[in-house]
Amino acid sequence: MATNGRTTETRERILSAACEVIAETGFEKIRMWMVAERAGVSTALLHYHYKTRDKLFTEAMTHSFANTTVDLERDADSVAPSVILARIVRSLLPMDPELRQDWRLWQELWVRALRDDETQRFAVDLYDQLQEWVSGAVNRGIEAGEFTDTDVAGLSTHILALCDGYGIRLMLSDPKVTSDSALAAVWRAIAAELGISPAFPKV
């Protein structure tokens, strides 16, 4: 068990380091030794866990998404569905340095997906997981009677599209779009569809 624990901890450290290095440097420029150095492991150990850069990249993206979902769902049974949905929406925008790092990973994924069929399939699968995550939060609110019944799949797609659009503008430091204005605009669209307050909840 101790060995399994060390292996899990090592993989977590490697994936966290990979997220940082890919976001800072860009996938095309990174080398495995850069990630090994950041993670504090040997290159040989890194290759033992991840044979190729492509494998490391996809695992890093999955790791980033999984960590976000676990963190935001930590108390889903004890807070209002609107709060959970608001947390999710906030996490889908580059609102702080950590989320901007996640966004840089997504941007790297988009670029690779345009040139590589396998990466494209992986990207579509990740979007499916994002949509299921958003849809789950909306369905909980409908079941709890807090949200008006709606086309959940359609609304989830709309939310992701809005967040992608505003997120790109924020990543470009477009002066016409601020974090607050983007968050407010996305939430107003959600609120109108779900029959809830247009004021963004305290999360």
Automatic annotation (TrEMBL):
Residue span(s) of domain HTH tetR-type: 8-68
Keywords: DNA-binding, Repressor, Transcription, Transcription regulation
The organism's place on the tree of life at top rank: Bacteria
Pfam families the record matches: TetR_C_6 (PF13977), TetR_N (PF00440)
DNA-binding segment(s): 31-50
UniProt feature coiled coil, ranges: none
Name of the protein in question: TetR/AcrR family transcriptional regulator
